[in-house]
Amino acid sequence: MTSRALRVIEFQTVEYVSGPLVFLEGVHGVQYDETVEIVAPGGEVRRGQVLEVDRSRAVIEVFAGTRGLDVAATRVRLGGDAARLGVGVGMLGRMFDGSGNAADGGPPILPEAFWEVAGLAMNPAAREHPAEFIETGVSAIDGLNTLVRGQKLPIFSGFGLPAAQLSAQVAARASVGGSDREGFVVVFAALGITHREASFFRRFIEDSGALGRTVMFLNLADDPTIERLLTPRVALTAAEFLAFEKGLHVLVILTDMTNYCEALREVSTAREEIPGRRGYPGYMYTDLASIYERAGRIRDHDGSITQLVILSMPDDDITHPIPDLTGYITEGQIVLSRELHRKGIDPPIDVLPSLSRLMNAGIGADKTRFDHRQVADQLYAFYAEGRDLRRLVAIIGEAALSEHDRRSLAFADDFERRFIHQGGAGRSLEETLELAWSLLDQFTTADLKRIHPETIAARRRGKDVPPPDQQADDDGS
Amino acid sequence: MSGAPGRLVRIAGPVVVATGLDEARLYNLVRVGRDRLIGEVIRLDGDEAVIQVYEETSGLQVGSAVEDTGAPLQVELGPGLLGQVFDGIQRPLPPLAVKNGEPFGEPFIRRGVQISALPRDRLWDFVPTVTVGDIVEPGTLLGTVKETATLEHRILVPSRMRGTVTRIQAGEAPVEQPVVWLDDRPLSMMRRWPVREPRPTAGRLDPDAPLITGQRVIDTLFPVALGGTTTIPGGFGTGKTVQEQSLARWAAADVIVYIGCGERGNELTDVLREFPELSDPRTGGPLMDRTILIANTSNMPVAAREASIYTGMTIAEYYRDQGYDVLLLADSTSRWAEALREVSGRLEEMPGEEGFPAYLPSRLAEFYERAGAVRCLGGGGREGSVTVVGAVSPPGADFSEPVTQYSMRLAGVFWALDTDLARRRHFPAIHWTRSFTLYDIGAWFDHNVAMDWEERRRWALELLHREEQLQSVVQLMGADVLAPSEQLVFLVGRMLREDFLQQSAFDDVDAFCSLEKQYEMLRIISLVYETTRRAVRDGVDPEAVMALAVLADVARMRDWPPDEAAERSRELETRIIEDVEAL
């Protein structure tokens, strides 16, 4: 991170070092939230931030950790400024550490401006309502949980589930853009993920040819934990510059927010704050909102920020505070299922608990296709029914089912194997909807309650599908 | 401002501590630091004043000056409120975004920006209703201003002021210019009022009339009284927002105050975009002309989120005092409770249930109790009301969490939005057995709509209840086990649910259903029940009843034009009686 020092005051009055925190005594002129430099006894310089000022005492979180710091020789330099990031279009194609310093061996970028990483709240009156469809190439998303520009959509994953592959796939496809759509630039922030995951992502983007349109901020698993509190903010500051200053559409990928929340808890515990649910601090909702709400569009401005946030649900528990609070801020969620993953369905998206709250704004005749909503509702209805029946069959056996039930049951399997499963291949929205129709063709018009009869009639005429009554005979035999 | 400035001694997030504020009282407004950030004293401890700051506190230092304004957090009240969009502490949001003449040149909210809530340069045509020499008391009507095409803004004598009118200045004036002099003391059209203090009235009225909403499930089954309180809890996707928008659009209120408290920015944008496009069905003018929006998204400062509820309530009370019926929608009180929890945590208070402070129920009670129908100060028989609808977002749709539970205990009406109904596309997804109303206003309906309104309402509730009990039997043993009379309960129960309770917010005719039409629809359904029950008792096969073609017309009652409801229902009644007899 590049900072502009306005004044420098130095103190050598460390009183107490605990966990990620340094307690400084006898200070004056310390600003709340300002960034500081901590000079370790060996002369090494680390970055920190003021968390609290109480009379002559300051509490400082040290992003790089407190190992090797002491009470006697450690010095703390105050810069008198909030954390800032030097931003510029030169960031595209580059890789940075979790604080925003160049980490790819290249020279530092030439900053066009220095922006505060904490960010400011967007004026609700200046927001544009997000309504532009993004094609991700994933049927479970495009067809059923459509993403729009300016939305924030988390992927609720579990340890060992392929959320990284899914996000890389989405990023690679979105960055290319369609014939009529402008591509995205991608800002990728790694929060405590492994080298393996990070290099997978980088390779995937590289292979798709989009590396030159990507900015990477990496705080990996073996990087300082507390730096993770800074990384998403640094990444979003870069994204805001590219989106609202340069008019680009930016897709921000934050992975994994669970690691972020754990760092937050670590600092909170070290400060001996009263813990909330499962030890996470009571202000976690507001803290997460200050990250997630940095997605959006602005009226009369060209660019946009879309967030794809990955978080791992500890023990696959969706009521855990991290997914729970996230779900209350984001506009829906994509939920990955261990059961589908075991069945070999890729991506293993469980569409029933998944939701895109902005879907309706982004679909329809003038945006995707006129039958999109109807088809999606019908797929949902049948799949929900089929899933219920699976449970029932486990108890009473398949013999007790009616003809209609048997068809719904078969539909659920078909739907998972043919519609959800893609095995890494991308599908256009047109392909997704046509595939959906081919799954629905086995049902009679009367069965397709969510679809307008005229829509069905028009389709079946055009497609030369046998009339419904004849179909019923076929199935009944 | 009073006294010498205090000095900051501690800064930790939105909560800061200052010393030397000798004259500061609890809840006084203070200005903190060089940017003069707005804060509020929330605890006094010896020499120390604990302050919650309504803006980001980054950059504050120990030793920064803190000025006591000598007054609590206040809102500005006067003509020019309607149609505006404010943040939690009444800063108008659209002007904050203007920069260099561009309407959205500054899309981010900068710190320390001050813009008056009421436009200062706009002129209002003041029409006095008093004459020189009149003796006036608190609440007396001094004059009126046409605030919008349909709403007459009434300028009243402030509370704690009385005297003789010594001078009047009629005609156009900005809000701050004196228009009336009481014993030579000038009075403008603008008032200020501390948000945490309920505005005084001449007395409470018993709630005896409903707030008519045009929603059948509400007006007929679970009506809310004018001046009553309602809680709507609903998990994700249960149609809470659509429900609130229907209320905002159709409810028979003169003024709507909508508080978006801790909501998502992108969703609030939807409201901000949608409302100005909607028209007021009662006047034909824009819906915004009777609406005030308060928007404090989840990433805006948490203390301002806490205050937003009170800001909205004070504005609502102000219009109530003019003799208007005001509907206040708060979405959502859960986010407000979380703001309380967060500030409480920063104060290191001992947490109660789920980490919420122990005073959560009393704060909620204070808020809900500010609703009510009142006799206004100043006489003249003026009566007004504030009806509160508080949305709750229970984590994981679990109604046993504290905010839902406390709200249920306080509110007079509970509209339980049901996830399962929503999934089955039954809208409004208000569940008929889990919801309740405590307002005993059946007499009003009996008197004003039809003598047997309350009787029919009870019949409908009972039948729905019986149908639900039968449902569980059928699920276990199949529909064959039902007696013929029970099969009719099933038939009519479904009719009530599908043809009466379901109502489309997006259909031009069905979106609003007049009380007369509601009554006629319910009357027809109960007629179907009575006539077919008699027929079945006389040996008619229930299957034959269910096959009656005339029943399809019952499903189409919702399309009746409101003014033809009585006529159409008489016609349908004759046919039902004839067709059932023919069996």
Q: Tags for this entry?
A:
heterodimer; A: 477 residues; alpha/beta; Elongation Factor Tu (Ef-tu), domain 3; Rossmann fold; 10-stranded mixed sheet; 7-stranded antiparallel sheet; 21 strands; elongated; disordered N terminus; disordered C terminus; B: 583 residues; alpha+beta; OB fold (Dihydrolipoamide Acetyltransferase, E2P); 4 domains; globular
What does this structure look like?
- The complex is a heterodimer of chains A (477) and B (583).
- Chain A is 34% helix and 24% strand.
- By secondary structure, chain A is α/β, with parallel strands linked by helices.
- Chain A has three domains: 9-82, Beta Barrel (Elongation Factor Tu (Ef-tu), domain 3); 85-362, Rossmann fold (3-Layer(aba) Sandwich), CATH 3.40.50; 379-476, no CATH class.
- In chain A, the strands form four sheets. In chain A, strands 9, 11, 14, 15, 16, 17, 18, 19, 20 and 21 form a ten-stranded mixed sheet that branches.
- In chain A, α10 (372-396) packs across α11 (403-420).
- The longest helix of chain A has 25 residues, at 372-396.
- Chain B is of the alpha+beta class.
- Chain B folds into four domains: 6-72, Elongation Factor Tu (Ef-tu), domain 3 (Beta Barrel); 119-189, OB fold (Dihydrolipoamide Acetyltransferase, E2P) (Beta Barrel); 203-333 and 362-431, 3-Layer(aba) Sandwich (Rossmann fold), CATH 3.40.50; 453-582, Bovine Mitochondrial F1-ATPase, ATP Synthase Beta Chain, Chain D, domain3 (Orthogonal Bundle).
- Chain B is built from 16 helices and 26 strands.
- Chain B is globular, with a radius of gyration of 27 Å.
- The N and C termini of chain B lie far apart (85 Å).
- In chain B, 50% of the residues are buried.
- The mean pLDDT of chain B is 91.
- Chains A and B meet through β5, β11, α6 and α7 of A and β1, α1, α4 and α6 of B.
